[in-house]
Model the fold of this input.
Amino acid sequence: MTRNQDDILQASSNPQRTSKKLPRILLFDIDGTLIRAVRRPQYRGLINDMLTEIFGTCGRIREVDFGGRTDLSIYREALECEGITMELIHEKMPVVEIRMVKILESLAATGEVFKLCRGVREMLDSMHEDERFFLSLLTGNVEKLAEAKLRVVDIHHYFHGRGAFGSDAENRDHLPEIAAQRIREHFQQPIEPEHFVIIGDTPRDISCARYFGAKVIAVATGAHSIEELNSYKPDAVLQDLSDTEALLKLLQVI
Done:
């Protein structure tokens, strides 16, 4: 059953459904969930220029919906109309990653690029040292860019393990298994899918969680409303991540 924030605050105090030996694994999306862009048009324009320099074209990048997509799938949709193959995109990805990080660092040197979503730092402060939870990432960003974004807003140190990134697979539905395998190796023991909770702001976050078998909490801090997210039947929907107590109660009952 999908719960909204009012339901969560009334949730029962059932014992937390996690292993005594393992913390609950929380996999956070980045864009729209933890941070939001402040200078989106300028940032996107520089990415378009970068793609043109590397591939000779930025294709239809201006028409592509980025929401919940992996960077690999965004580049395929943008560039395949110009005859750019996925093989070439994979070949050029190390260069693309380096250039994207440089773009972000150059923008950050001249002003704010991203803002934290409401309550995120307070939530992370509360949860990252809580032994009941292990905080990691599941994002469509390529790995080096994901790290750079978190460093720009000074929250990279809250996350552990390697998680999964948009440079690992084109299809976001395949990212949870990649993250899970890395985290299993980290703990050196098996971890069942239902022990993972994916937290994100788009229908694609919900879809990838369901594909893997994880629990999923949607947050309405991106482009989708609570009503829209509810229609995809996540385990719960929150307006944002500002109420840490509500989130902790919710993690006890899903």
User: Anything to note?
Assistant: The chain has two domains: 5-36+116-253, 40-108. The first strand starts at residue 24 and ends at 28.
